[in-house]
Amino acid sequence: EEAVFLRKKITLLRAFSLLIGSMVGSGIFISPKGVLKNSGSVGFSLVVWFACGLLSMFGALCYAELGTRITKSGGHYIYILETLGPLPSFLFLWAEFFAIRPANSAVVSLAFGRYMLEPFFSPCAAPVPAVKLVSLLGYYMVLTLNSWSVTWSARLQTALSIIKLLALALIIVPGMMLLAQGHTENFQDAFDRQSLVLDKLPLAFYAGMFAYSGWFQTSFVREELVRPERNIPLAVIVSVITVIVGYMLTNISYYTVLGTQDVLASPAVAVSFVQRAFKSLISVVPVLVALSCFGTMNGGIFTFSRTLFVASREGQWPPLFSMIHIRRHTPLPAVMLMFPLVTAMVCIGDIYHLMNFFSFSRWLFIGLATLGLIVHRHRHPELHSPFKVPLFVPVSFTIICLFTVAMSFYSDPVNISIGCTMVLSGFPVYYLIIHRQMSSRCHYLTHKLQLLLEVVQQEIKTY
């Protein structure tokens, strides 16, 4: 009886929680190993962590301006569509659906399963089949919640954001206490140039940027934000600064307690840290870390479903996925679409190979989105934006993103080539399908699924 559309239910606190909950997840607990391995030393790894934080701030500021200029939800997809055109936006959508998002979700899910089982099998490693089973159960729980209620998904994200900050505090405090007592032996020869391999640095940045990834999440739900012109920039700036400080202190704590070889040998760095520094919390911290990963899964499903929803509304995805449940007011078909691919990648994937696999495509299109900001400014100088960053911010961010993407071909040619092939495979799909009308059989199938799922088209556009 009432209009069916996505309500504005995301306040400033929920936007801040969405960003914190998406950034502070599996990354800070698994990426230190990848950053250290590819940067070569403790000192250079800390430089990479800070540089990734600074780069994330630049990207977040660019997206904050895009979010005030372009009033639709959809994140990277809608920004590329509105600034660079339909072909690049469809290539992003294609790569995001078949490579970036399922691989990213699989990485976070596997981290969730590993940390959740760690207390039960310590000091031995948890069996791989058990880790994958628990990973899938956690992912399906989040999937169900996002299908059920937007409000409860947002409330869960707020609660888990507090747990995430608590998990970081439990690592930072004992590490800082030991550092204050003079335990600096692991920082001797911190900048060992002999172990630095320049062509591996892009992979170190990928691992670091994976830990920070999530600063763009508010752009996916722009139409559901309360007072977006004010709340997007405010939430972005406060959350990224909070995460930079937290990550730097967490890594210093890791290196205060664990040596280089300990970090490289550990499958779960946070657990190794607690085993060495704070044995009384050996069963608590892994569970907190697992809950952090759970929050990241929740934020990822919450935001990516809006990308599919908007792409379907723009005519570049089947129309079923722009429909909303008539009672729950959730984009149910878009939420449910990802689970087969994520299930497959969890079953066959490895965390670090998956990370390199999806990072190429993700940073390529993020660089194109900020390039689109420069293009949009040039095309529409008359457009007033309530939030505007200096031009050198999008220019420098775009150059760094595209340069890192180009360099990664030398660092990991196999995984990067697979990711590149995945992007290029979207070309024939775009020209053969997107410009053609769907057959009557496809419309018939959409109608039957619409009745089964109890979903309808959005009646009111809120942008």
From TrEMBL:
Signal peptide: none annotated. It is found in: Membrane. Its main location: membrane. GO terms for molecular function: L-amino acid transmembrane transporter activity. It comes from the Eukaryota. The keyword Transmembrane helix applies. It is a multi-pass membrane protein. Keywords: Membrane, Transmembrane, Transmembrane helix. The chain crosses the membrane at residues 12-30, 42-64, 76-100, 120-142, 162-183, 203-221, 233-257, 277-297, 332-354, 360-377, 389-410, 416-434. GO terms for cellular component: membrane. InterPro entries: AA/rel_permease1 (IPR002293), AminoAcid_Transporter (IPR050598). Gene3D superfamilies: Amino acid/polyamine transporter I (1.20.1740.10). This is XCT protein. The gene is Slc7a11_1.
